[in-house]
Amino acid sequence: MAGISSSAIETLRDQLATATVHIPGSKGHRGCLPHDNHGSGGATWKAVDEAGAAHGLATVGGTVNHTGVGGLTLGGGYGWLSGQYGLTIDNLRSATVVLADGRVMTASATEHPDLFWALRGAGYNFGVVVDFTYQAYHQGNRVYAGILGFSPDRLESIIELLNSLLANPDARSGAMCIFAQAPDGSGPMIIIICFYNGTREEGQERFAGFLALEPVLNTVDIVPYPVVNTLQNPQATYGDRKSFKGIFYEPPLDPGFMRSVFNEFMAKIQDDLDLMPSAIILECIDMRKICETPVPATALASRNLTQNGILYLRWTDPAKDLDHRAWARGVQAKWKAELDARKRDLQGGVEVPQYINYAEPGDSVVPNIYGENLGRLQTLKARYDPNNVFHKMHPIPLPP
């Protein structure tokens, strides 16, 4: 979706498709399964969320609802419902693809299944997807969600509580921890986005420790499900210059490391006020459902218990591009070093910790972001795009 990506690639792709969403059983879709949700390549998650909610349905979609469905889906797709239903690609039933030679194919588990496999995790490399069909689920329109804001002195206590959440996962629950400026610009703040797919009482029990920390900001309430995917929108508005650097961690988080990250980040943005809209965002998701699907079942290689995050830098002065991106790479390298150190204490670690949607083109911190799936992807690339027309997002090298 134009204005969100840190490069021009997403803008080009999404402008090639119309923006429509269709719910099965509605006019023009007789015969569709009752729990399918159809979205075109140019649709936003807002349209998908609202269309589904009107029928008491939801699917696993993005946590920023004014982004396009295509990019998130083709790279995997984490959302607030991932704990219950897995990734967006795990709920993709079919896709209509325009190939480099102009052929239009429907890819699914029964039609061109090899192409369907490749689209789910490496889809940028195989064509232009103009239509998606997702599995949808019955979803009550009320969930427990909102924002808690804390002063910086609460950081160590917050990290302990996050570690407790991660050590005691709940498929209906999720959280994000954000280091940023307070919404009113008054100074540094630690923000927790809370989500519980249940009642107020269940949500309050899940997040009782955070509520007891006396947040200086509290918007948590029972809200319609589509509202949850708007909570980050004010921070992720269109425009400006951006750099997204994927970070990742193995729980439990180290409070000392997190304090050093927080202090360095806040010093950086306070030294250059043009960076004030920037943030560090850590996701806390129950990964068990995601890991039920074996890595070879889709093209996505980063299917493990490693949690994701993102260093989100935003500024306006083009003269600062090189400096800001270099600093961001340094921060990202510290997170990778922390994970590598932790992996020495783990049984084998993880081969591919980096989530492809959080890796800018040419900025992967792992030598092979496709992991064990690379060989099969190369074979399919030679079949479906032998002239390498689609090569701007983590290109798959053609076989020799």
From TrEMBL:
Q: Which InterPro entries match?
A: BBE, FAD-bd_PCMH, FAD-bd_PCMH-like_sf, FAD-bd_PCMH_sub2, FAD-linked_Oxidoreductase, Oxid_FAD_bind_N
Q: Which UniProt keywords apply?
A: FAD, Flavoprotein, Oxidoreductase
Q: Which Gene3D superfamilies does this one have? A: 3.30.465.10, 3.40.462.20
Domain FAD-binding PCMH-type per the UniProt entry, residue ranges: 1-139
Q: Do the record's keywords include Electron transport? A: no
The record lists the membrane-crossing segments as none
Q: Name one GO molecular function term.
A: FAD binding
Q: Does the keyword Phosphoprotein apply?
A: no
Give the protein family: Belongs to the oxygen-dependent FAD-linked oxidoreductase family.
Its protein name is Xylooligosaccharide oxidase
